[in-house]
Amino acid sequence: MVLNEQEIMNAICLNTALRKQIRPEAVDVQLMYDDDLGYSAEVTTMGRSQYIIEATILEAIEQYLYKEHGLQVFRSQISLYIEDEMIARVAV
């Protein structure tokens, strides 16, 4: 299974909204990759920005797959890649 960049951002929005008890529409996500730091994202809510690391992105994808697709996967089954855009490959 492959998740495209939009699905990854949706997963982060849903995860952040759940944590902060706000609507997912109030969350803005910018995915990033750096050779030294790896995968991360800038998440903006209510005018405040925070950076999340790869582990948090994987957690968000884990929860998204369970809640939206009924799939229970572990972080070790999820790999992030950059092609034309960021994608997540999930071994199910």
UniProtKB/TrEMBL annotation:
Domain of life of the source: Bacteria
Organism name: Paenibacillus mesotrionivorans
Official protein name in the record: DUF2653 family protein
